[in-house]
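[job 0417] fold request received: Purine nucleoside phosphorylase DeoD-type
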Amino acid sequence: MATPHNAAKKGEIAQTVLMPGDPLRARFIAETYLTDVTCYNTVRNMLGFTGLYRGKRVSVQGSGMGIPSIGIYSYELFEFYDVRSIIRIGTAGGLGKNVGLRDLVAGMGACTNSNFAAQYRLPGTFAPIASWRLLKKADEAAKALGVPLKVGNLLSSDTFYSDDPEHEKWIQMGVLAVEMEAAGLYCNAAHAGREALCLCSISDVPATGESLSAQERQESFHDMMKVALELAD
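[job 0417] inference complete; emitting structure tokens
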């Protein structure tokens, strides 16, 4: 059952899908962490793969950048391919005063400056939140693996280059990190009655200008993957 953006046939995608923004990172994950891998999608080069991790079937597919892009791909996975859980895995900018480079953050909720939720015509403001089951499993997996995990609110921003880059008001409200996709993913999961979680590795701290090198990002990415892969059902 193909869609305009996904060539997969029914049954080719696992119930759990990991979604990095970069499709080339999806290929790297499949080749590095999974066995018996097959590629199910190359449409628009948004690569998707299914394989096995410790005997459990798991898929990994790129989401692209921003809420509009992950909104399309996660919607199709939930609504047309019966995917149960999507775990976004990516980098984020650290905002919280106790959040530093290499930290792993799980988004319990996702604040946003996006208008994505307006489509639901709700009589108020919707609060996009993660699946408690996935969040609990991530916390347990991180503890078992000895990987420190910080849990709290994310900011899903529609702008990467902003005319108003100040984040002090979000920091005051306890937001830990800024990224660009979680709120849209959480909205789609809620609408479909499915599960989602965003795991982010802190690659830079906007307030100080600190950032990781490519090699350092790879090392912190490995810790994030160890936790994310344990969430596969």
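[job 0417] notes: The chain has one domain: 16-229. The longest helix spans residues 214-229.
[job 0417] exit 0
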